[in-house]
Write a structure and sequence with these properties.
heterodimer, A: mainly alpha, two-stranded antiparallel ribbon, B: alpha+beta, Nuclear Transport Factor 2, Chain: A, 5-stranded antiparallel sheet, 6 helices, 7 strands, about 30% helix, coiled coil (chain A), ribosome biogenesis (chain A), nucleus (chain A), Ribosom_reg (chain A), Ribosome biogenesis regulatory protein (chain A)
């Protein structure tokens, strides 16, 4: 009994071992390539094992394949030299063999600054200078520029008033002011260089500079900007006698998104079609009635004129101009014309014709 | 590329309704897929949703054409129908031209008068090769 149970135990243990080994050993036709530095495992086996092209079975097969490959990778990791770091067993990874491509594109070469352009043009080469200079006053080596530099003229304790200067002028303040101006100018030039490098247009430089050649468009733009640069944003600015009021910037149109709601688009279009179709007979009726009424008015006007003509007796060779006026000759101007002699009326008629033409 | 505004859609539909009448809804609401009108550089294209989603990835300068070009809007916002729309209009067509004179006048007119305005013909494929997209 005991022997059998012992045998059974051993068999069971052996089976368990085999099971474990089976779980962690994976058979592959072609060995995987490992780049443990990147935790990368490359499987070059052709995927002949994948029977199904799509469907639920494919998912299971892919998952099995992934599990096998990950198992092999982990097996490799366990073979690396390990060390303890704060109660955790850590494997030391080797150097990665696969070189990853650049994340960002190569930086573009910067455009030259104004000084660099000038130096290139003139052929000026930078001369190597020493970084420290001997300062007589403090009897030590001081740097050429920067903090505690050798010859800092703002730090002088005695300044002689120069020959032609005002005796009450503060020479120390004058030097400090000059330094501030130099610093500001330097900063401005630096920013201008950066703006040139990024092709960003500074607002003061957007074609608007006080001197130099300016095209007509630039002058116009400068005038527009100047007009709007008031406290009331150009609302109460006087205008020259014949100047037109300025055009506003106008409203920016908003459109529907390109890939919006297709169903909503369809619905609105169908609605539009329905309205269009339903409107058709209605429009025609109104138009037809208006047209009819206009015809009747025209006929009545023509009749009246004929009767009046017959009574008046004066023959006028000039054609009445309902065509010119467009909306049918109303009796008003026609009446006026009748009263005048032809000569004067001719001139008047021509002027009227001119007006009509306009 | 953008969808048409309300006015543009109504102009387009009015023009189309002259040819296919009420069957425009068959163009808008198709059983075999979602098709829509899109405007690109003043031209109106009739394109399926699938192709539209692909075309969205092409920049405006590089995009030449998509789907079928139905026609274009002129500078004064009038719609000009192109011959390339024929495939979609032919199945639903009501007539082939715009009448120049009313029915009554057609009867009393002299033999050389214009009766039908030419809208498009098959020769346009060759004659307007450069401008048809």
């Amino acid at each position: 009994m005991e022997a059998r149970s012992a045998e059974e135990l051993l068999a069971r243990a052996e089976r368990a071992e085999a099971e474990k080994l089976r779980l962690i050993t994976v058979h592959k036709d072609l060995e995987l390539e490992f780049d443990l530095g990147n935790l990368l495992a490359t499987d070059r086996n052709p995927p002949t094992g994948l029977r199904q092209r799509s469907g639920p079975g494919l998912e299971a097969q892919l998952r099995g394949l992934a599990r096998d490959n990950v198992q092999l990778l982990i097996n490799q990791l366990w073979q690396l030299p390990s060390e303890r770091v704060e109660e955790a067993v850590v494997a030391r990874l080797p150097e990665p063999s696969l070189r990853l491509p650049r994340e960002k594109p190569l930086p573009k070469p910067r455009p030259l600054t104004r000084w660099q352009q000038f130096a290139q043009l003139k052929g000026i080469r930078p001369r190597k200078k020493t970084s420290l200079v001997w300062d007589e006053a403090s009897k030590q080596w001081r740097r050429r520029w920067g903090y505690q530099r050798a010859r800092d003229d703002t730090k002088e304790w005695l300044i002689e008033v120069p020959g032609g200067a005002d005796p009450d002028e503060d020479q120390f303040a004058k030097r400090l002011q000059a330094k501030k101006e130099r610093v500001a100018r330097n900063e401005l030039n630096r920013l201008r260089n950066i703006a040139r490098a990024h092709k960003v247009q500074l607002p003061s430089q957007g074609g608007m500079h006080p001197t130099g050649y300016q095209s007509r468009a630039e002058l116009g733009k400068a005038m527009q900007v100047a007009k709007v640069s008031t406290a009331s944003v150009g609302r109460f600015q006087e205008r020259l006698p014949k100047e037109k009021p300025p055009r506003g910037p106008g409203k920016k149109r908003q459109f529907q998104p390109n890939i919006g709601d297709f169903a909503a688009e369809k619905k609105s279009q169908l609605e539009l079609i329905r309205v269009m179709n339903s409107k058709k007979p209605r429009m025609d009726v109104t138009r037809a009635t208006n047209k009819q009424m206009r015809e009747e008015d025209r006929e009545e006007a023509a009749k009246k004129r004929k009767v009046a003509k017959g009574r008046g007796g004066k023959r006028k060779g000039r054609p009445l101009g309902p065509g010119g006026k467009g909306k049918g000759g109303p009796p008003g101007p026609g009446g006026k014309r009748k009263g005048r002699p032809p000569g004067l009326g001719g001139k008047k008629g021509q002027r009227q014709g001119g007006k009509r033409r306009k | 590329m953008r969808p048409l505004t309300e006015e543009e859609t109504s102009t387009l539909f009015q023009k189309l309704s002259k040819y296919i009448g009420e069957n425009i809804q068959l163009l808008v609401d198709r059983p075999d897929g979602t098709y829509c009108f899109r405007l690109h550089k003043d031209r109106v294209y009739y394109v399926s949703e699938k192709i539209l989603k692909l075309a969205v990835n092409i920049s405006r300068e590089k995009l030449v054409s998509l789907g079928t070009c139905f026609g274009k809007f002129t500078k004064t916002q009038k719609f000009r129908l192109h011959i390339t729309a024929l495939d979609y209009l032919a199945p639903y067509a009501k007539g082939f031209g715009v009448a120049a004179k009313s029915t009554q006048d057609c009867r009393k007119v002299d033999p050389m008068a214009i009766v039908v305005f030419h809208q498009a013909d098959i020769g346009e494929y060759v004659r307007h090769e450069d401008t048809l997209i």
